[in-house]
Design brief:
Blueprint: H1 2-24, H2 26-42, E1 45-53, E2 64-67, E3 71-74, E4 80-85, E5 91-95, E6 102-105, E7 113-117, E8 128-131, E9 134-137, E10 145-149, H3 163-167, E11 174-178, E12 187-191, E13 204-207, E14 210-211, E15 238-244, E16 259-264, E17 273-284, H4 294-307, H5 312-316, H6 339-343, E18 347-359, E19 363-375, E20 382-395, E21 400-414, H7 426-432, E22 440-442, E23 448-452, H8 463-469, E24 471-488, E25 493-512, E26 520-521, E27 526-527, E28 530-553, E29 557-580, E30 599-620, E31 624-635, E32 649-659, E33 672-686, E34 697-703, E35 706-713, E36 722-735, E37 740-759, E38 768-791, E39 795-812, E40 818-822, E41 825-829, E42 837-840, E43 843-846, H9 850-856, E44 859-861, E45 867-869, E46 875-877, E47 885-886, E48 892-895, E49 901-911, E50 914-924, E51 927-930, H10 931-937, E52 981-983, E53 986-998, E54 1008-1022, E55 1042-1043, E56 1051-1060
Parallel strand pairs: 1-7, 13-16, 44-47, 51-55
Antiparallel strand pairs: 1-4, 2-3, 2-5, 5-6, 8-9, 10-15, 11-12, 13-14, 15-16, 17-18, 17-56, 18-19, 19-20, 20-21, 21-24, 22-23, 24-25, 25-28, 26-27, 28-29, 29-30, 30-31, 31-32, 32-33, 33-36, 34-35, 36-37, 37-38, 38-39, 39-49, 40-41, 41-42, 42-48, 43-46, 44-45, 49-50, 50-53, 51-52, 53-54, 54-56
Helix pairs in contact: 7-8
Amino acid sequence: MLKIIKLTCVVSIFFAGELYMPLFAQEAHDATKKTIVTTIKKNSISVQGVVKSAQTKKPLSGINVTVDGFSAAITNDDGSFKIKVPHLDAVLKISGQDFQTKVYAVKKKDSGIEIFLNEANYSQNYEIADMAAGDKMQYDNTNASTVVNFGKDQWSNPVNQSVGSFLQGRVAGLTAIRNSGTPSSGTYLTLRGFNSLYATNKPLIIVDGMIYDDEDYGSGIVQNNVSSPLSNIDVKDIEDVTVIKDGTSLYGTKGANGVIKITTIRPTELSTKIDFTMYGGVNQAPDQLPLLGSDAYRTHLSQLEASRGLTQSQIAALPYMNDNPDVSGYYKYHNNTNWQDQIFKSSVNQNYFLKVRGGDDIAKFGLSVGYLDSKGIVDQTQTKRYSTRLNAALRLTEKLSVDANLSFINNVDSQWDQGYAYKTSPLYLALTKAPFLTSHDVNDAGEVSPNLADVDYFNVSNPNAILDNGFGLNKNYRFFGNLKFNYALSKSWDLNTILGLTLNKERETFFIPDMGVADLVLPTAIAKNRSGSEVQIYNSIFTDTYANYTKHLNNDHNVDVRFGLRTQSNKSESDLGLGYNSSTDDFTSVGAGSNLLRQVGGALGEWNWLNIYANADYNYRNKYFLTTSYAVDGSSRFGDKLDGSNKYALMSSLTGAWLVSSEGFMKNLKNVDYLKLRATYGYSGNDDIGNFTAQKYYISQNLLGMQGLVTGNIGNPNLQWETVKKFNVGADLGLFNERVSASVDFYNNRTRNMIVYESISNLTGFDYVASNSGAMRTLGAELALKARVVNSNDFTFDLGLNLSRYKNEVQGLPNGDIYTQFAGATYLTSVGKEANLFYGLKANGVFSTTAEATTAGLNRRLTNGDLIPFTAGDMRYVDTNNDHVIDNSDRVVIGNPNPDVVGSFSANFTYKRFSLQGLFNFSIGNDIYNGLRYNLEKMSGYENQSAAVANRWIAEGQQTDIPKAVWGDPMGNAEFSSRWIEDGSYLRLKTVVLGYDFKVNDINYIKYIKLYASANNLFTFTKYLGYDPEFSATSSIFGQGTDIGLAPQFKTFQLGLRLGL
């Protein structure tokens, strides 16, 4: 540490001299510059070459060829150029209107330099990446990173609604899982797998230089709905996204899971340009799950009632088993209702977006307004988004400029409970409600009444009653903006300050009626109807003040330094009210409910973050690159008893790259355009340990009508951040005039001081306390491959492939194995194994005969300790410990929700003015606990069941894999086991877009007219038996891979028009 301090002092003195000498010794500085330039020119070398189109192979005139800070040239009519370079290791920067910007290493003196340029929107190694310490061309970037250019990318069509869905399949290593098919649903993002058990695994989001809160607001009062603030950003507002996978130490204790940097519209135009986009389309209701019809369901109920001990005469006397039309109630129970038809509805969507850019040399602006209206496929679900953005660049003086990035959105979402909300989720009720009932009352003459049917004989709610008389509403308001001040001290130095503000308010309300809905049992009462209101407020002030220093010495040594200070101050508040039993269903507010039953709650949060950082980039002759980063973090979340050496988190990284293709020995390998080797080693942290987890605090509690304080958390004053040690090696390759490009990376992430919950003495009143006693490692590999198969003037054909694989291993737990429960699934986390593995009994078929069951000699241990032998028709579980008793001691690992490989492949065609693009994404090897199928095949109650149970065991000797139906399931035939684990692998055609670019040369005021036709989620190949193999019911690592019956994704067909003026 002492050496680092000494080095810092020396560097600071050097920088101070560089900073102030221009202010007091301008003439001497200019004289020095002139001498250097003279020396360079004296030792310069003349090289010449030609620039051609990669598509037509014809020469290109008017192309700029430069050597930064040294010389410049423009190609002639025949595409030729002649330019002075300081040495043969120099690099040429080639650029021209409507063409890519390219960097070319000279390497040789002869006139055989031949450079081919592709069109501007061609993906290559020369994109500008928004890295942690500023913009950097991918050509000389030392980190593993990917740039997705929304503005130029051929995939930038107007039909994507969220950033997460747009990024899916476009970045190797980035897993983007749509939470559900509800219109406002966000996307669960992880980068290179998991690094933590209890802290966040989501990457840090930076928008226009400012941290963007992406906490899921999914713990609201409308059950199992997750809305991500990131989905508030319209993709048509975005210029580009840079995904940084390693070397994120500069972000200190927020960079452990990588960084996604989003840049919105840049105000760069001098002339006014208008871009208008509109599209509309149809959302198609999904394929339905096969369920029992009325007759099959009635047969199932007959067998189920018999298992309860009812005689045939008693069963026949039940109202729903009556087959005599003359008996009252016959028509009530003799229908064949497809409840999924009642809930699923095809719907429409529409979007309008206007963007205006313009200005002059003093002030430039980018203004956008947008409106989105998208309905869901569950009846009456909808999202409406109103958005506006103003980005501006003001040049106040020659040295002082100000950039403004301001946005405001208003989201209004209509939504329902979903998932395991057994009494109030319309989707769940549509699957489990008896098919022989209808949504409306039916009299004894068989006439259907306009009145909705009440709760049925089986105490199951009427989903139509919820849709007609209830509501769920989420309103979100967010202001997000910042001002950036830049002052140029000299050609080498500039100072910058970003001042940012986030104001977010979300209000959620719901009402569940009495009519048609099953009662809710409260501790002291029965709730007939119920209502709720919750308000969540989040405010944040962000600052980032930094200095940049740039120095180029003799065109050999290039140094870029940035050091600065970031702060973030955050406050949150939530207030909740629940009301029950209003006088009628016409009174839907919380205040209309019973005073005696009303519940209130809330929470306050406050946390602060300080980040001091420094970064230095060095390269020698654009061949050898070295980057080092340091950050020191302080946070109010850390424990207050940490000693001096641990009070602040010190993060550092070192990255290096070798541009092999710039070496002289590569000059004869004409087909190798680009070859770079990279390596990174560094530390980054995770401060998502909870705002008050390290502290002891008290909460208010009511006991027997008296309000008092009780301990809410025991706290751990020594609690600190998690540290992730990252090691990455990679290579980037370009071949055949960039017709083929590839990037490959291998990484090893090791988490130390991982947050876990450690058991403590029960004398404290608590069972566990958070500690830094865990450890984990994640290994992985990534491959990104692109190829231009055909490259002609009229026709191009591109292929792309992204592959990634990761495998984590838990390396340290203080109390041994961790068993967690989520939605009926049990997860095991154990040292030496991957985290969150499915853990349960292993099913091995169904006992076909009594003799087979007797021979096996297996018994079931009941909760009271009694043993009951398995009989014919029961599940056959593997007795792993050979004690002839099936219980929890026989549980084993039965599945892994983590995929073996995830990826995508794409195909892009252009023919003259037509374009056709397709994107497939896939996942291989991940297991899913089909919790929805569990509820539809457990055969232990009155719920309607899957059509698959028609194959249940009924008679001696029957061969089947579905056990017999028994009321209450006393033998645990439906227990969590491998019976419910399915292969979740899938291949999905995510997007198909057909476009046509109209010719508008004869219309002066129209720049372009583009017509789109698109289809999303067109088809999915999978063996999975649920609605959709892609979902994420929670942001916790312990709930991944469990299907709780969320609304599925759906097919969308759209037409769009984009007009430029």
